[in-house]
Every structure is written in structure tokens, then in C-alpha cells.
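Now for our specimen.

. . .
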Amino acid sequence: MKKSSTIYQLATCALMTTLMCVLGPMSIQIGPIPISFTNFVIYLAVYVLGMRGAASSYVVYLLLGAMGMPVFSGYTGGPGKLVGPTGGYLIGFIIMALICGFVMEKSKGNTVITILGMIAATLVDYFFGTIWFVLQMQCGVWYALTVCVFPFILVDLAKILAAATLGQRVRAALTKSNLLPAQN
């Protein structure tokens, strides 16, 4: 790999982390789990950075938040957010980024397959986060689903479709500019 290519990848990874730090705190509180733009940026990062880069940029974001920077929803930060009731969703985003990226890379950017991969990855995050929430709050699964999953399904589908549309355009522009390799 060319040295300049690695520099571009690192810079792009840093830009995606920055975008997560800017958009992630913006949220709408609708219950114990807020609507945020963090997963939208992860979906977008998958298109721009691929599996490893998207997961890496999210892990950096997560570490910044864990150290206390106010980058989580509602401009919060600190380790308490990670070990609290909603921490499972934040940690599950790592797995989500890996699944989304894997599917996109294996499908060579096929839009339908990538969107299906994003939906599947989001379901995995829902599963992981909901179990975490149930254990933390000592509540029933049905209650957790009604406050942590059902209100987000349509919003998350909209984020997936928006990220797929925007992600393809951003990736095409970066590829045309020789900042990203073409997908084979």
C-alpha cells in the first residue's frame, strides 16, 4: 500500500470520528434510549472506510466518550454511560460496524445486499443492547423492546436508506478523486 494512501485512510478515519463526535451528541430523548445520529454516521463510515476503518473510527469515538468527552447522546460522556442501561447499544455498535462493513465488502458494494446487511447488523445491535438493558434495569424483555427497539425501527430504516444513498455518492466522489480504491 502506498504511503500517501495510508495517510488518506487515516485522515478519512479521523474525519469520520470527528463527524461522529459532532453528530452523535445531537439527540431527541423519547424515553430511556434517545434517537441519535451515531448509527447513521457508522453506516456512512462503512461506505467511506470499509469494515476495519468504520469499526476503528467508532472505537476511537467510543474511547473519547468513555474518557469523559461529551460526545454521546445529549452531550454526555464518561464510563457511566457505557456501563449504564444504554451502554449495550453503544458497545453493540462495534459489532454493527463490523457486520455492515463485512457485508458491504463481500457484496462489492451491492446496494440491496448492503442495505440488508445494515438491517441485519442493526438487529444484532438491538439484540445486544436490549439484553444489556434488561439485565441493567431488571425488567422484562417486552418492556425493553417497547422502549428501546420498537420506537426506533422506522427511524433507523430511514437512516440506513439515507446513509446508503449518501454513502454511495461520497464513495464514488472519493474513488473518482483517487482517494479511495475502486471496489472490485
Q: What stands out?
A: The chain has a mean pLDDT of 92. The first helix runs from residue 3 to 23.
